[in-house]
Amino acid sequence: MISSISLVVFHLLAAYSTVNPCLCSTLSPAGPVVNCSSLNLMEVPHLPSETTELYLQNNRLTSLSPGLFDRFTGLKRISLSENPFHCDCQIQYLRNWLLKNRAIVLKEPTCSSPSSVAQKAITELSDDYFSFCTVAKCTHGMYNTIIGVMLFGLIVLLLWSLKIARKSTFTLDIDERHSGFEADSLRSLKPKHRRRLHTGLSEVSVDSESLADKEDLDRPLLNMELLPQVLDVLHKKHNIKIKAT
Fold first, then answer.
1. For the residues 104-116, what does the mean pLDDT come to?
2. Which CATH class is domain 2-132?
3. Contact 57, 81 (CB under 8 A)
4. Per the omega criterion (within 30 degrees of 0), is the bond before 114 cis?
5. What is the pLDDT of residues 114-139, one digit of tens each?
C-alpha cells in the first residue's frame, strides 16, 4: 500500500518537475523536498501541497501572495532568507505566518526596503507598523460604498422623474375676459411699411401700398375654425389641457 502511494507521488513530482524550475528530491520518509533556491525567482511557482521541506533562499522575492503557505499543512522546514522583501502592507501576511511558524523557519528573512526598516527581521515589525494598512483598506471600502449608494440613488431619482413626467398633465389657464376672443384680435404684427422689390418697369403708388398693408393687418393670423382641432391634438398627443378660468 505504501509503495503504491509512493509511486503516485513520484509520478506527480515527475510531472511537476517538467514545468517547474525547482528541484524535487527523491522521496523521503517525511515527504517531498523542494529546492527553489538561487533561481532568481520573482514569485513562488506552483508547488505540491505534500511538500515537507521548501528552500526559497537567494531569490528575488519582494512579497508573497496572501494564503500562499496555508495549504502546506505538512511543512516541516522552510528557508526564505536572502530575498529583497519590500515591507509594506503586502508583507503583513508573511509576517503573521512567520510568527505562527517560527519553529520551522531556518533563518528569519529581513526587509530590504523601505529604508526605515531595512535589514530588520520581518517578524520584528509591530502591529502599529501595519495600522495604516487597515485604515487605508477601510477608507477605500467606505469610499466605494458611498459612491455605490450615490449612483443607486441617482438612478432611482431619474427613473422616478421619468415616471412623473409621463403622468404629468399641463394645463393652460385662460382668463375669463379672454374666453370669447375673436379672430380680429390675432392680427399680424407686420410693420406698416415693408420693403418690396421693384423691377425697373413696374411702378406702385403709395396709396396701393398702404391699401395692401391694411389688408395684411385685417387678415387674421390664425384660422379660428382650426382652433378646436389644435386644442384636441394638444390634449391627446401632448397631454396639454387649455381651460378658461
1. 95
2. alpha beta
3. yes
4. yes
5. 999 999 999 999 999 999 887 545 45
3-state secondary structure of 212: helix
Buried b (16+ CB within 10 A) or exposed e, 175-214: eeeeeeeeeeeeeeeeeeeeeeeeeeeeeeeeeeeeeeee
Q: Is the dihedral of CA 22, 28, 32, 36 positive or negative?
A: negative
Cα separations (Å) of 211 from 107, 187, 192, 217, 237? 114, 16, 10, 10, 41
Q: In this structure, are residues 84 and 55 in contact, taking their beta carbons and an 8 Å threshold?
A: no
Tell me: pLDDT of 53 over 70. yes
Q: Which residue has 413696374 as its cell numbers?
A: 202
Q: Is 26 in a helix, a strand, or coil?
A: coil
| Ranges for all domains in the chain classified under CATH 3.80.10.10 | 2-132
- Residue 43 pLDDT exceeds 70: yes
pLDDT given at position 2: 41
Coil/strand/helix, residue 105: strand
193/78: higher pLDDT? 78
